[in-house]
């Protein structure tokens, strides 16, 4: 356990050439930086679910220095691999695997749960090979000799959408229904190219587009490249249709609610009595003058006046109608109009035609 980086991993082999492997998590380092700066925060596993100053936290995360990392790595190498004293050599530190994540933190787990389900459902079907290459800043060419595709996996922690291009991937998953994480992972940083100084074999140098070097001093440039991958993926996801609000409204309308200590049943849009009530509420004349109990009675002769009153109260509690101030008239809300129209359309255009051809 390092005092700055938190939980770390250092693999020390017992055979020559004593190649060391070091692992650390940037979230642990950021947590230490926030504590040092006196900024309040809360974490769930390796995800921040609350930070008092998000802008300052991003500045602290961007302040990660390869020079500081190099000094720390040399210190651990000297401490854990004393054979270096015999050879009088030092280590050259390179990048084997790098992950860069962009976290979107939600205040409510209810919102993210339905949103993530909708995004994952659409992403697994809509993301094609061209989009995967675009996320990672590449183009598909006839010379392409790397595997490219998408995968949906379910684990104990939850589900994950992963789009991979060779040894590089971009994925999306949620953390505890509070954080939506977009993460780009590479096992070969030379997959990416950028404009840098190139030293040629004949001794001269030039500046041109070249593969990223594997040295730890490429972390600064690699951070910007991986951030760009996450942003392109996020832009694509933001263009998808979001029906999560509809899922939440459907669940709210069909589930029981507790109001003033009383339990109210959710609505069954296929019940004959409730369908008759909804169709009556949808009549055009009520859109202008509003709805009263007496106005509904001629269309709902199978329901007693007291039952109509209770139905109106339920409709109001569920947000389907609203009451006129200082009056006894009601109007359909936007949610009410959409709900009734959808229920009638599904019944008339889908369920009834399908059952008409069914045999008992």
TrEMBL record:
Top-level division of the source organism's lineage: Bacteria
Cross-referenced InterPro entries: WH_DNA-bd_sf
Protein name, as recorded: MarR family transcriptional regulator
